[in-house]
TrEMBL record:
Belongs to the glycogen phosphorylase family. This is Alpha-1,4 glucan phosphorylase. Its EC number is 2.4.1.1. Its cofactor is pyridoxal 5'-phosphate. It comes from Microbacterium imperiale. GO terms for cellular component: cytoplasm. The keyword Nucleus does not apply. Phosphorylase is an important allosteric enzyme in carbohydrate metabolism. Enzymes from different sources differ in their regulatory mechanisms and in their natural substrates. However, all known phosphorylases share catalytic and structural properties. Allosteric enzyme that catalyzes the rate-limiting step in glycogen catabolism, the phosphorolytic cleavage of glycogen to produce glucose-1-phosphate, and plays a central role in maintaining cellular and organismal glucose homeostasis.
Length: 835
């Protein structure tokens, strides 16, 4: 029994009442049954009558009702997963960008129509209920959303699995614009309660921190133990993760931090009220807020506390709740695989070693053998600055025993390196998990040394990991490295986000494609069918009109339905090159205002942006300011005759993505080749019939290979060409000199015309491009503008464009997250779906 596991094993049932012994049943899946359940929840759970119920009452009662239909399956599944010995997947992720839950749970349980009719019978429009839900923004971007797509596919493929993470009280900040500049507002997503979670204080784990270690003699065996200084309670909140209409419901368990002793009455009575609750506030801080960085770790102690907090609670929970009491730990690798979603949870490796060696008293080698088979690591980045490194000082202070364990892991690893490569000091220094000056722990190296498998998230990314970022490790342990190209769940990003397209596809292919997305390939022949093309174009137009209504109501933006919708939605980061998109817009604007091009000759376009910048990322925030500034000038300049529009709705999130992506014509995937690990937005756009303009970066390469060069607007340098130019010495100014339009665009930005004549406002952006330009915006400009000309030409033949859009949908079924999960099962997990 580990020191932090107090909950007794479930007692055999002594119940006699037949109902108590029967499996939990769901309410009748009928309109009447649903109305009854809904009114019971409204009256009994909310304590209100329908006549006096608020919108919040109705929404929470509706959520409880849908929950009630899923709980039976959930409990049955938990019982089954506990009973059967099959291998399970524990997905450890510091982020889950879940999006709204109501529609997904209705879809998964096949209750959408029944609920719609039942609510209508109660005089309630389900649309108003949908709008009432606050999405849990427990993630930053790609990594967090991928985790959400993956747990959806794990449940839909009936893989026994549990997602572990943190229940942040405040998720990703709410973005508002003031004078075009980003302002961050706290995301109080729990304000109205969260109907989809089940709190289980009785299953809390105790997680400790700091203190010191000591060795002691344990019947002649020298052992180490950790004597922590303080601890907090990790309280689990369980969320249902329903599979798509397969009766499966997996669990997402998110931990919330609370004080071990909530309130110090004696201190309170002594009048020191603040001191009385200090422990509580201190503890709760751990799961208070999501770190809004998505590329540059700040190395903050609280971030490391967060990582250890959820990892330690998850391992204790798994080892005590899921594993039978007397489980033979040498068999652990047959029972579970812990997938590390980037390096954020990698402290799980020394934690597992501490539990196996210090608590379960296994010897080091046996423990290490088990640990190495129980973990696998997915890397999601290529930016050196995004690779987490923790100082030995901080780690030693916060987790002294774990640092000792990491040192021993490293010593034994370097012995193996020396054995294999001899006294190659460069290699030993470069492969050491511990780097010097200042002494730090390289978490990606720890994950690579400990993981059974290491994978990148797109072919090119995995190749670059092996050739560059982790080259020395690939030379030593090539068998560890593999690739699993990302994917997205078609349930949310096609069926829910684009119901009309889904109907059109089902009309052509029948049902089944939502769980077998490669069947979209059968649509290829329909691209040649004029009626189908007309219907397809009709769906796109309808989605544009719907987006127009949403943005009008949300932000007062209007979208002209004869405009080409050119969309760039993703986190704001220099490597993603939103500045290249800005230079395109300014170039078109400059052409007209300089009189070189008549506005009437322009292909009408609306440029839609969605992007949050990490609050501490000054250059990113400045680019957001510039986009809004260019937008307000372009949108109000009569010389453009309304043929160019810039629309930048604030607070881009999953819910907005579900509205924007189905309406898009052009998907902007324009990162510098070799910088975007994969991208997943690119997949969502292609699957919703948008054409991609992009570089050969991340998964763009695989999208282009599948859809064909004729159906993809490729531009820019390839990764080797980028490396070659970098090696040759990149002088961005030369590119500005070489391209007249580029210089004109840069000059226009410097001129202050977008900043009320104040040249200083955006000068830092222009000078950065001219004298630094780390992500080679200027080098790819000419090729990009030429590609945009090709886009205009292609869009002029709307029917051919539609044909190409249909082929994009038909040929991108590969990018289902179901396929990604199947690849993880085959190449890394070797866990089997449970029929
Ligand atoms: C510690 C700061 C931090 C936080 C998050 C560093 C790095 C991250 C993430 C790894 C960043 C991220 O979201 N990466 C994105 O992951 C997606 C899913 O694999 C990929 O599709 C994107 O290309 C990648 O940028």
């Amino acid at each position: 029994m580990s020191e932090n596991d107090k909950t007794p094993a479930p007692r055999p049932l002594t119940a006699t009442h037949p109902l108590a012994l029967a499996p939990v049943s769901s309410p009748p899946a009928t309109v009447d049954g649903f109305v009854r359940e809904f009114l019971v929840n409204l009256n009994l759970e909310r304590g209100v009558a329908l006549s006096s119920a608020t919108e919040t009452d109705k929404y929470l009662a509706l959520a409880s009702t849908v929950r009630d239909y899923l709980v039976a399956r959930w409990l049955e599944d938990q019982r089954r997963q506990r009973a059967d010995q099959s291998k399970a997947v524990c997905y450890l992720s510091a982020e889950y960008l879940l999006g709204r839950q109501l529609d997904n749970n209705l879809l998964a349980s096949g209750l959408t129509d029944i609920a719609t009719q039942a609510l209508a019978a109660c005089g309630i429009d389900i649309d108003s209920m949908r709008a009432h839900e606050v999405e849990p923004g427990l993630g930053n971007g790609g990594l967090g959303r991928l985790a959400a797509c993956f747990i959806d596919s794990l449940a839909t493929l009936s893989v026994p699995s549990i997602g572990y993470g943190i229940r942040y009280e405040y998720g990703i900040f709410r973005q508002v614009f003031r004078d075009g500049q980003q302002i961050e507002k706290p995301d109080a997503w729990l304000a109205l309660g969260s109907p989809w979670e089940f709190r289980h204080p009785e299953a809390a784990q105790t997680v400790s921190f700091a203190g010191h270690t000591e060795t002691y003699d344990d019947d002649g065996v020298l052992r180490s133990r950790w004597v922590p200084a303080w601890s907090v309670r990790a309280v689990p909140y369980n969320y249902m993760v329903p599979g798509y209409q397969n009766g499966r419901v997996n669990t997402l368990r998110l931990w919330s931090a609370e004080a071990t002793k909530a309130f110090d009455l004696r201190t309170f009575n002594s009048g020191d009220y603040v001191e009385a609750v200090r422990a509580q506030t201190f503890a709760e801080n751990i799961s208070k807020v999501l770190y809004p960085e998505d590329s540059t770790p700040q190395g903050k102690e609280l971030r490391l506390q967060q990582q250890y907090f959820f990892v330690a609670a998850s391992i204790a929970d798994y080892m005590s709740k899921v594993l039978p009491e007397d489980f033979d730990l040498t068999k652990l690798p047959d029972r579970v695989i812990f997938q590390l979603n980037d390096t954020h949870p990698v402290i799980a490796v020394p934690e597992m070693m501490r539990v196996l060696v210090d608590e379960r008293k296994l010897d080091w080698d046996a423990a290490w053998a088990i640990t190495q088979k129980c973990f696998a690591y997915t890397c999601h980045t290529l930016l050196p600055e995004a690779l987490e490194v923790w100082s030995v000082d901080l780690l030693g202070r916060l987790l002294p025993r774990h640092l000792e364990i990491i040192y021993r892991i490293n010593d034994e690893f370097l012995l193996a390196v020396r054995e294999r490569f001899g006294d190659d000091e460069r290699r030993l220094r470069d492969m050491s998990i511990i780097s010097e000056n200042p002494a730090s722990v390289r978490m990606a190296y720890l994950a690579t040394v400990a993981g059974a498998k290491v994978n990148g998230v797109a072919e090119l990314h995995s190749q670059l990991l092996r050739e560059k970022v982790l080259h020395d490790f690939d030379e030593m342990m090539p068998e560890k490295f593999t690739n699993v190209t990302n994917g997205v769940t078609p349930r949310r990003f096609m069926r829910l986000a684009n119901p009309e397209l889904s109907e059109l596809i089902t009309a052509a292919l029948g049902t089944g494609w939502l769980t077998d997305l490669e069947r979209l390939r059968e649509l290829e022949s329909y691209a040649e069918d004029a009626d189908f093309r007309a219907a397809f174009a009709g769906v796109k137009a309808a989605n544009k009109r719907r987006l127009n209504e949403v943005l009008l109501a949300r932000d007062g933006f209007a979208i002209a339905d004869d405009h080409l919708l050119d969309v760039m939605v993703k986190r704001l980061h220099e490597y993603k090159r939103q500045m290249l998109k800005v230079l395109h817009i300014v170039t078109l604007y400059e052409r007209v205002v300089s009189g070189r091009v008549a506005a009437s000759d322009l292909q009408p376009r609306t440029f839609i942006f969605g992007a949050k910048a990490a609050p501490g990322y000054a250059m990113a925030k400045r680019v957001i300011h510039l986009i809004n500034a260019v937008g307000s000038v372009v949108n109000s300049d009569p010389r453009l005759e309304g043929r160019l529009k810039v629309v930048f709705p604030p607070n881009y999130n999953v819910t907005l993505a579900e509205r924007v992506i189905p309406a898009a014509d052009l998907s902007e995937q324009i990162s510098l080749a070799g910088k975007e690990a994969s991208g997943t937005g690119n997949m969502k756009f292609a699957l919703n019939g948008a054409l991609t303009i992009g570089t050969d970066d991340g998964a763009n390469v695989e999208i282009r290979e599948l859809v064909g060069d004729d159906n993809f607007f490729l531009f820019g340098m390839s990764e080797p060409e980028v490396e070659e130019l970098w090696a040759r010495g990149y002088r961005p100014g030369e590119f500005a000199q070489a391209d007249d339009e580029l210089r004109r665009a840069l000059d226009l930005i410097s001129s202050g015309v977008f900043s009320g004549g104040d040249r200083s406002t955006f000068e830092p952006i222009v000078s950065n491009l001219l004298y630094d330009d780390r992500f080679m915006v200027l080098a790819d400009y000419t090729s990009y503008i030429a590609a945009q000309e090709r886009v205009d030409a292609a869009y002029a033949d709307r029917d051919a464009w539609t044909r190409s859009a249909i082929l994009n949908v038909a040929r991108t079924g590969f990018f289902s997250s179901d396929r990604s999960i199947r690849d993880y099962i085959d190449r890394i997990w070797h866990a089997q779906p449970v029929r």
